[in-house]
Amino acid sequence: MRIAATIIGAIAMTATPAAAQEAPPRLVPAFTIVAEIGPAEELGATARGPRRIIPITGGTIEGEGISGTVRPGAWDWQVDRADGCTELEAVYFVETDDGAVINVNNRATICPPAQGEESAPVFTRPIFEAPLGAYQWLGQGTFVGRLGLATDHPVPAVRIEVFRVQ
Amino acid sequence: MRIAATIIGAIAMTATPAAAQEAPPRLVPAFTIVAEIGPAEELGATARGPRRIIPITGGTIEGEGISGTVRPGAWDWQVDRADGCTELEAVYFVETDDGAVINVNNRATICPPAQGEESAPVFTRPIFEAPLGAYQWLGQGTFVGRLGLATDHPVPAVRIEVFRVQ
Amino acid sequence: MRIAATIIGAIAMTATPAAAQEAPPRLVPAFTIVAEIGPAEELGATARGPRRIIPITGGTIEGEGISGTVRPGAWDWQVDRADGCTELEAVYFVETDDGAVINVNNRATICPPAQGEESAPVFTRPIFEAPLGAYQWLGQGTFVGRLGLATDHPVPAVRIEVFRVQ
Amino acid sequence: MRIAATIIGAIAMTATPAAAQEAPPRLVPAFTIVAEIGPAEELGATARGPRRIIPITGGTIEGEGISGTVRPGAWDWQVDRADGCTELEAVYFVETDDGAVINVNNRATICPPAQGEESAPVFTRPIFEAPLGAYQWLGQGTFVGRLGLATDHPVPAVRIEVFRVQ
């Protein structure tokens, strides 16, 4: 019942002005995670393909309405697929300056660039789970990440710019 | 090693022109799924919250380079959370006109609008798994969906506009 | 706090008589699912390995305190791994005679027998989610399945004997 | 085809002697994991229920054909459900004495004992992923865990006795 109302509400919106209906959603900058990483550790071939671990050893989260650190003691667990792409799944916790602990699950598929093309940016599918309260919007929105090396960071790190779909 | 090269390639790109680096990624229309649905079936309260099933009974997929049907005999499995939002997970298969069968996993979180606000569009996190070949790009890209009722469809249905992150 | 108490309760038990501590848990028959299946449909090679669908078209669930049917319109989604084993994941709903609808997620890894050995039985890891009430024990216990062809069934079917760990 | 043969092989076996068919599978001791744990950290209420983290700080794995350590820097992530039970999901890596790194995913549902009853042992559903080679059997078998406090260990720890289904 409630969900029906919610969906009907959504359609009411998408059904109204043609312009609004046709414009794609936008990706609005939300915050940036810098995740410090240790050396990749190759685990060897498994039944699902070659596996490796990228240790996550610390870092920061900074953005509008959120500021904090990445907890050490976590990892990105990768597997190489038969199509030459690599699947990443990084799971870790960030702790905000006011003490909330938020779970991050960030997945991506990295594929080699087509021949003759420069490499494409790496996009990720981050999901957050936060306690109810100031940060519960993290578990209610839809987000996309853009992943790159944090070349300006004093230790090896990746930068994930997180955008909210709006 | 390979992945290191891939990430370095990615950073090489994001590190070059400041403009490119600062512009958010874009959501580019890829294709549209119209999923025909049956009446919601309330399963009652569970240990994780109230559950319901929305049967998926057919439909279509249409877009640049892809055209086909949604196979009947699938469902969207929903659960209501403590924060008033509902989690959706629809799992089904689409079959293209040239015979490829592609798995779709489409998740979303639908939250009621804040008081005094009109309802927001519903965004989804679709993941695809296609056989290697003409449709393998579906398993290599990053996508966002926009979900609404397909009011112009002859039978009850939802429309999912799928955008590729670029 | 509560969980601490629960774990302490558990250890109090396992810590007491040496005999109880050393005897392995037992697998006690709980109920049997007969799942009727359609012909396997080969989807071809994917980035994760060759995929196939085994349609689930009906069936029954029978046991102490539970009796009902398997809903049609579901499937077992399989993938062949690099070690010669096949991973199965069957997801479907059963409906009890008194109207409860229970989600079943049943996973297994099937490996070819070692050379010179007869084939081993196939064991599965079933997880259930039932509404609160008469069947909530399904979501609270730990279960193991034994999978075989239901040779005595009038249409092609598999039989899953489900055992509760005790 | 191959899978069909595998299932037919399995049924051929289970279909033969009635005695073999009727006896439940057995749980055969495989190895024991002692996981050292830090103090539980309560994260507060979330949209899925109250969450907590139990840090995993080290430990050992010992059994027939396997010996090694539990890597620190991991955690058990728990959530309390509406039925009074708690779901655990511990994810960590063990490293064998000969250098293999094995992923462990261990889930359990802990429920309070019924009124007037002593508490029940806690059973778990461990899944392993090991590199191909000496330990690939870990990713091919079906296992059940029995969880209790390791009262004889010098630091706070849980003991998981792991049994193979046979």
TrEMBL record, chains A, B, C, D:
This is Uncharacterized protein. Keywords: Signal. Gene3D superfamilies: 2.40.160.20. The keyword Signal applies. Pfam families: DUF3237 (PF11578). PANTHER family: UPF0311 PROTEIN BLR7842. It comes from Aurantiacibacter luteus. It comes from the Bacteria. Residues 1-20 form the signal peptide.
